[in-house]
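ping. complex inputs:
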Amino acid sequence: MTSTPPSRLVSSFEANVLLVLQYILRRDPYERALKVIFTNSESPDCLSRDAMEVIQDYLRKGCIRILAGGNGWWHERYLKYRQVHEGRLWQRHSAEDLRLSFSHHTLRFLLWLTAENPADKKTRWLKIPLEELTGADWLFFYLAFSALVPTMARSALIHKPLFLHHPLCRLAYPEHFQEQDALAIRPDFIPWLTGSKAVLVEAFQMELCQRWLAVEDGKARITDWADMQVLGKAQEFILNAFLDALEKETRPDLARFLFVTLKALLPEQPRLELWTRSLEGMGHRLADRTQTHQAALVLPRQMSRLHRW
Amino acid sequence: MSRAYRIKVSESLRKTIRGEDHVSTQLEILNLLPPEEMAQLLRDELDQRGFLEEENCLVRDREGIRLVIDPSEGLVTVEVAGCAELELQKEGEGYSWEQEGDLQRKAEIILREKVKRDLEKEAREKQGELQQELTDKLEAELADLRRELDQIASAVTANALKRKAAQMGQIKEISEDRETGSMTIVLEV
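pong. complex structure:
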């Protein structure tokens, strides 16, 4: 005899919180959630026990589904610290590294996002102390970024310290971090090469590959050579930060997504036109043209470094 | 009946316009000897070709083209730069509803601003022309420079091979074919 789960009673605000959370966890389509996100509402002083339990349940199941669902369930085999590691994501890591423990900052942000309109210039953004965030919090904020960056909230989002300093956001979405404030902050990847954060980098290898292919694909539609240069500069900046850290900590295995990306990107005889076919000129000076070529070919140019490894 | 009064202004612009362009490449030389020795061989070859030492690089200026080579990295930079003094003058004509007074002064100010903008636009066009000239000049030199860099790389490689061979044994004979760029070294080990 199966037991039916207990029914929960939540307020309308709490129902909105759950809707926003489901959207961030990639369960709910955006139409319903965005209406809530871009409307201001009154946030209560506290949440009910029922609402808290549902939030915890959604986070627990949603995060595991996302981490296991991408490439986490793949049986992979690679060298790590010169030793062969193989198995699915949860077989390759200790229970300690796989544990997801959220701090109150995740809930604070979720409530703030439900109550405030992040696209409104008058909205005061939440201050999140980055040093207090757990691996699970960083995962949540990555998912929040990927949910909000295609929306009206993008222009505010990409300038917030939380996301400027978020290595996974910067690595997965380099095209959104092209401005001066982003290029002045070199995210620290070192803490992301061990422990629970390294598990996140491993779990998102396929997503990182898809994202970089999307950015490279987008280059074929760029018409202005100055835009190509700016994009290439942003890509090179974050790739150097990432690869420098991998080289220092001897974790080349975490760059596996780059090999897959390059294999998918490059045909038998690659030509520059693959990236530059829509460009209206390459630049007035030879120096500009060289820079434009280098910007277009940022990813293939990493091959010599990867080959040295 | 009101009438329009013609106003004339004259403005001048004096400016120095500048342009520059550069390309960089890497000399492809095999590391037959330790890096310091290869760097010294490159230094010696460039010295024979009239390059001068400048801040750890070897530099040659010829007909407005500057060639800078860093022997330790093998990095080659070809630069061109130029400047010109511009003296532009322009007149503008407009109309005012008053012969003198506030309206006339305002009309004159607006007309002067327009003439100044036209002068700035002309200066930008001249700067663009200067820049294009410099870029064309650099582009025209590249083919010859490429040949010269290939010759430098070949000479350094040949000298490195001879030195390497001498370390391995006694050189009995060296024959070089300058046309094909090939070299044969006979060694007694």
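Chain B has two helices and seven strands.
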